Each structure stands twice: as C-alpha cells, then as structure tokens.
Amino acid sequence: MDIPDTTDPHHAAARFLAALDDDWAALIATVGPCLHAPKPAREPWQALLRAVAYQQLSVRAGDTMIARFLALYGDGDFPSPQQVCDTTVEALRGCGFSGRKADTLRTIAAAALDGTVPTLADALTLSDEALIARLTALHGIGRWTVEMMLIYTLGRTDLLPADDLGVREGYRRLRRLDRPPTPRQMTELALPWSPHRTAASWYLWRVPR
To answer: What is Dmax (Cα atoms) for the chain?
Structure first.
C-alpha cells in the first residue's frame, strides 16, 4: 500500500478540503489527489498571452491557436516580446485570434518590453493584489487573465478566480443548486477554504457533470 506524502502541499490541501463537509469529502474521493501543476519556468508575459488565447474557448481550440502562433516564429520556441510587437495584427488573426485578442497580445508584449509586466523574478516578490492592480491597467487584460497567470505560473496556492464560470458552475453542481453563485457570492463562499483556495478551484473545475 502506498503511503501518501503528507509533506506534499496538494495532499495537505485535499485533506483540508475533505474535512470541510460531506460534499467536499465525496468530491475529493471521486476525483482523487490534486494534480495541479504550475509551469514556473514561464515568464509572466508569456503566461498572460496564453491566458488571453484561451479566453472563452475550449482547451482544444486554445491549444490549436497557440500552436499556430508558435509556428509563426519557425523554431517552436516562444518568441521574444519584440518579435510579437513586430508581428502584424493580420498575421495574428491568421492564427485564429480575434482582432481584439491580437491587439491585446501586442499590448502584453510591449508592456513586457517597458517593464510594466514584471519578470518572473520580480513578480515573485509582489502580492496577488499588487499584480492584479498593475496588470489589469493594461488594455484587454482583466482580473481572470491575471489570476490564471498567478495560479499557473507563479504557483499561488490561495487564489480562487470568482469570475470563472467553471468554478461557479462546479460549486452549483457540488451543492446541487438551481443556479451558480454570483462572483461576489463565490468570493464569500470561498473564504473558509483559505489557505487552499487554488486547490479548491482545481477540484471545482472537476466536479462530475
């Protein structure tokens, strides 16, 4: 029999959430261990660009657009901010991005060049709210986009994207409600899940349909 690693923060989060009530215990028993896997090697501007690509799209559609985007630059590596700034809106639209998203990608790249989007090393020294305030000032960047960067690149462990429809719909199914909570209600409901709100989000995204 495998002995769970009790030093794993995801294991600790799952145990914490399972102890909240029977609904959470049943969800975690059904889904299994939390397998949330941040990508800490990515720079924040790269993570923001990827998050924009996936806005209001399925994972498959977002993956396709990112693959086409990377193919523009030939070698498969992520381009530099300058390369993105030098890419025309028409070329980006050819990858499947809307005109609005194409403009936002170029805005992100320009902000990486001028330092508005911090480097990974600098971002790690800033709080969630400081980064959210700084980056949502950019045209086309909303709170959800920054929260995806915080969760998947900076590895923040106590963040719940209350605007995310998947989180809210997951909670509706978990509690067998007629309708999902509003973002404000979701924020309040998630307070008792601290300091493991990122893991809670991961599980809510996986509530069985």
So the answer is: 57
Tell me which amino acid residue 129 is.
Answer: E
Going by C-alpha positions, the residue among 166, 130, 169 that lies closest to residue 150 is 130
What token pair was written down for 27? 């969800």
Give CATH for domain 9-37+160-204: 1.10.1670.40
d(CA 108, CA 140): 9
Out of 2.60.40.420, 3.90.226.10, 3.20.20.140, 1.10.340.30, the CATH code matching 44-152 is 1.10.340.30
pLDDT digits (tens, 9 = 90+) for 43-96: 999 999 999 998 877 888 889 999 999 999 987 689 999 999 999 999 999 999
What is the rounded distance in angstroms from the CA atom of residue 16 to the CA atom of residue 153? 23
Residues designated as active site: 164
The span from the CA of 141 to the CA of 98, in Å, is 15
Rounded average pLDDT per 10-residue block, the chain, 209 residues: 52 96 98 91 92 85 92 87 96 95 96 96 95 95 94 94 96 98 98 97 95
Can you tell me the distance from the alpha carbon of 84 to that of 69, in angstroms, rounded to the nearest whole number? 10
Instruction: Show the 3-state SS of 113-174.
Output: HHCCCCCHHHHCCCCHHHHHHHHCCCCCCCHHHHHHHHHHCCCCCCCCCCCCHHHHHHHHHH
